[in-house]
Inverse folding.
């Protein structure tokens, strides 16, 4: 068996509470096992998308009252117009917007777009789902 490494992670209480509920609903026996699965899933997904053409969707929610955020997200999307096929915008409630961005292109560009959007302050959640190869 490989060596076990322990490390600490700082999280908001609300986030860890939500994660614990998720962990319980998925019948994990421990938080560690749930985190191990998340890490494996992310590494596998990244490996799968390394190089080559992909197609998929970016789904994100954000607070559109955050100063200049909506314009910033639009500017970023304009910089990736060759990767973005279409965008659907839904006004979730008074504060929050949901965007579904259909993408097609080189995995590296799709990842770059997703990462650039994800790190903006006010983006609450972003997931990238690769559904198939674009080739
Ligand atoms: Ni909106």
């Amino acid at each position: 068996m490989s060596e076990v490494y322990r490390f600490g992670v700082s999280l908001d209480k609300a986030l860890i509470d939500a994660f614990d509920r998720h962990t319980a609903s998925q019948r994990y026996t421990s938080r560690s096992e749930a985190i191990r699965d998340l890490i494996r899933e992310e590494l596998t997904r990244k490996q799968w998308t390394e190089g080559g053409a992909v197609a998929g969707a970016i789904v994100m929610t954000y607070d559109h009252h955050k100063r200049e955020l909506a314009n910033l997200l639009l500017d970023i999307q304009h910089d990736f117009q060759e990767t973005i096929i279409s965008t659907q915008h839904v006004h979730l409630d008074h504060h929050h917007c949901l965007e579904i961005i259909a993408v097609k292109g080189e995995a590296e560009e799709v990842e770059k777009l997703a990462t650039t959007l994800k790190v903006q302050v006010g983006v609450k959640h972003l997931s990238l789902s690769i559904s198939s190869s674009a080739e």
